[in-house]
């Protein structure tokens, strides 16, 4: 395999409820995503990444307020849709069924 060879697709069967139960067993501060049915440990965001995300949210929120829009930009937020046990590949969070920090 060389660097130009695409990684094989993940193929797991973990659903969101199982993933959330798994997350309860993990130490606080770990960052995991559920990608195509597989729990994948993610590296924490760098300080530069966090600063950029914060600056972007501040810019967006200033623009929303200036236009009197009832919108708000957040960062470091996990997203879960109640009642959805599995997400189709490519849905939300870049193909992840769950993304966020615990």
**What general outline do the C-alpha atoms trace?**
extended
In N-to-C order, the SSE pattern is HEEHE
What share of residues is helical?
Answer: 25-40%
**Strand residue percentage:** 5-15%
**Can you tell me the residue ranges where pLDDT is under 50 for at least 5 consecutive residues?**
88-102
Number of domains: 1
End-to-end distance, in Å?
Answer: 34 Å
Overall average pLDDT: 76
Give a verbal description of the structure.
The protein has one domain (16-98). The chain has a three-stranded antiparallel sheet with strand order 2-1-3, with helices on one face. The protein is built from two helices and three strands. Strand 1 and strand 2 (38-42) form a beta hairpin. Residues 88-102 have low confidence and may be disordered. The radius of gyration is 17 Å and the shape is extended. The protein has helices at residues 16-24, 47-66; strands at 31-35, 38-42, 96-98. It is of the alpha+beta class and 102 residues long. The longest helix has 20 residues, at 47-66. Helices cover 28% and strands 13% of the residues.
Task: Output the keywords.
102 residues; 3-stranded antiparallel sheet; alpha+beta
Brief overview:
28% of the residues lie in helices and 13% in strands. With 102 residues, it is of the alpha+beta class.
Secondary-structure topology with pairs:
Blueprint: H1 16-24, E1 31-35, E2 38-42, H2 47-66, E3 96-98
Antiparallel strand pairs: 1-2, 1-3
């Amino acid at each position: 395999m060389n660097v130009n060879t695409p990684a094989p697709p993940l193929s797991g069967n973990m659903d969101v409820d199982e993933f959330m139960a798994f997350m309860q067993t993990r130490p606080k501060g770990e960052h995991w995503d559920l990608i195509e049915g597989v729990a994948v440990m993610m590296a924490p965001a760098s300080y530069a990444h966090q600063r950029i995300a914060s600056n972007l949210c501040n810019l967006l929120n200033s623009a929303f307020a200036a236009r009197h829009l009832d919108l708000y930009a957040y960062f470091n937020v996990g997203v879960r849709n109640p009642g959805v046990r599995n997400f189709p590949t490519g849905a939300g969070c870049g193909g992840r069924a769950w993304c966020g920090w615990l």
